[in-house]
């Protein structure tokens, strides 16, 4: 007996039969599902506007501020002068000696992400050298927070664009602590511009030499003192992953930092030294009120999937993770996005 297929049944139906074929049934299912969705769409359009999806996402240990003030600061920016103080203490984070006995350097360590990293490094058992420009009050406040965790902290003000300063900063750290285990390159200059033509050579050089040259000079000074198990962590940015139309030179430097991270990781892996980067999204630090207009500061971070800016304490655990040999001993050359959005890479 010849086997009947859906194809032959369909031909029979097309010839005038009334029996529904499997493909007819499937098409009917398609139309039913379409009708059901059309009804839901019509219902949604008729309903009053919903705030669902517009609310800031809270998924951490404690609720974070969902709105920030539209404040403006003079560069380089001082955390002490910010109306809405960034959160850096991470009170729910408990140390577990992940960095016990280590000596660390954090550039841009006076405030923002650098301050939050310094505090958690100390909570994990590390001594911290803070390299910063001239925000002395902020640096002293960070030093007090580190010392409150029971660790030593020294302040080293200066310009990371200068090779001699970078050499002195590393030498002083090693002399004080007797070793150097972790370097966090975090210092940065950022200034928005509507057009590339508005970026002068002076501004371009300042951004490039601070954000890229400073990282390379600090790493070059640090490496001779680093032993197997040491690590370097660079602060990249979502702008280095996605670009930013108003931060052309800054975005270029962050992309370069990501490439520098991977290249240096390959270069020093045989020495047992790891090199990684964190790519933050929008973070509430003095860097942005000292760059953006007040209205832009007020809406800063609303474009993320989290619909809010991050607090520094939400970034600092990523640095601990990458610095700790017990957590990331088999990780090098990565750029870890902490951006508040799904489409980070």
Q: Would you write up a description of this structure?
A:
Helix 3 links the parallel strand 1 and strand 2. About 3% of the residues have low confidence. The protein has a single domain, classed as 3-Layer(aba) Sandwich (Rossmann fold), CATH 3.40.50. The protein has a 7-stranded parallel beta sheet, with helices on both faces. The longest helix has 25 residues. By secondary structure, the chain is an alpha/beta fold. The chain is built from 11 helices and 7 strands.
Gist of the model:
The chain is of the alpha/beta class and 345 residues long. The chain starts with 5 loop residues before the first helix and ends in a 7-residue tail after the last strand. About 3% of the residues have low confidence.
Topology (elements, then pairings):
Layout lengths: L5 H9 L7 H25 L56 E5 L4 H12 L3 E6 L3 H13 L4 E5 L5 H15 L4 E4 L15 H22 L8 E5 L2 H5 L5 H21 L5 E7 L13 H6 L16 H8 L1 H4 L6 E4 L7
Element pattern in H and E: HHEHEHEHEHEHHEHHHE
Q: What class do helices, strands and sheet pairing give? A: alpha/beta
Quick one: overall form? globular
- Count of runs of 4 or more consecutive helical residues: 11
Q: How many structural domains are formed by the residues?
A: 1
Can you identify the CATH superfamily? NAD(P)-binding Rossmann-like Domain
CATH-defined architecture: 3-Layer(aba) Sandwich
Strand order of the largest sheet: 3-2-1-4-5-6-7
Helix proportion of residues, in percent?
40-55%
Q: End-to-end span in angstroms?
A: 59 Å
Arithmetic mean of pLDDT: 86
DSSP E strands, number = 7
Largest sheet: 7 strands, parallel
CATH class category:
Alpha Beta
What percent strand? 5-15%
- Uncertain parts: 4-14
**Radius of gyration over C-alpha positions, nearest whole angstrom:** 27 Å
CATH fold title: Rossmann fold
